[in-house]
Amino acid sequence: MRALVAYGTRYGSTKGIAERMGKVLKEKKVEVMIEEAERVSAADIASRDLIVIGSAIIMGNWLRPAEKLIASNETALAGKRTARLRLLHGRLGPVARGRRPDKLS
Ligand SMILES: Cc1cc2nc3c(=O)[nH]c(=O)nc-3n(C[C@H](O)[C@H](O)[C@H](O)COP(=O)(O)O)c2cc1C
């Protein structure tokens, strides 16, 4: 399996969580790309089976690069296994869709 863990961060916590997720996935022999949302291309999404997108929440909103990544790739993401994560006050918020990456087989 090939996975992409994309993140939007302002202060670095979400990047840290993305890296931890990437580490867990690698331990499960998943090939992982970990990248800032604004640097992710449509080709990066097309070439992965599992897409995890996470963002800090600032004033009630996802950060724009993470939001834009989803909005610009809606069709491609619809055909993928996805998990979307929100970071709330330094903690990981609920997974909106999909399963926890450390529970994937
Ligand atoms: C100016 C500011 C606004 C924030 N607004 C929200 C918010 O509306 N809802 C929320 O749950 N957390 C909010 N937070 C908390 C951040 O989501 C949290 O600190 C997060 O860990 C930041 O992630 P980052 O380190 O990846 O940037 C806010 C934090 C700051 C500094």
Describe this structure in words.
The protein is an alpha/beta fold and 105 residues long. The chain has one domain: Rossmann fold. The protein is 32% helix and 32% strand. It is built from four helices and six strands. Strands 1, 2, 3, 4, 5 and 6 form a six-stranded mixed sheet that branches. Strand 3 (50-58) and strand 4 (61-62) form a beta hairpin. Mean pLDDT is 85; it is low at 93-105. Residues 9-14, 56-60, 87-90 line the site of flavin mononucleotide.
CATH fold-level assignment? Rossmann fold
Named once each, the bound ligands are: flavin mononucleotide
Number of strands: 6
Number of domains: 1
CATH homologous superfamily designation = Flavodoxin domain
Quaternary assembly? single chain
Number of contiguous helices: 4
Radius of gyration over all CA atoms, rounded: 12 Å
CATH class: Alpha Beta
What can be said about this structure in brief?
This protein is α/β, with parallel strands linked by helices and 105 residues long.
Descriptive tags:
Rossmann fold; 4 helices; globular; binds flavin mononucleotide; 6-stranded mixed sheet; 105 residues; disordered C terminus; alpha/beta
Topology summary:
Elements: E1 2-8, H1 13-27, E2 31-36, H2 42-46, E3 50-58, E4 61-62, H3 64-72, H4 74-78, E5 81-88, E6 91-92
Bound molecules: flavin mononucleotide.
Residues 9-14, 56-60, 87-90 line the site of flavin mononucleotide.
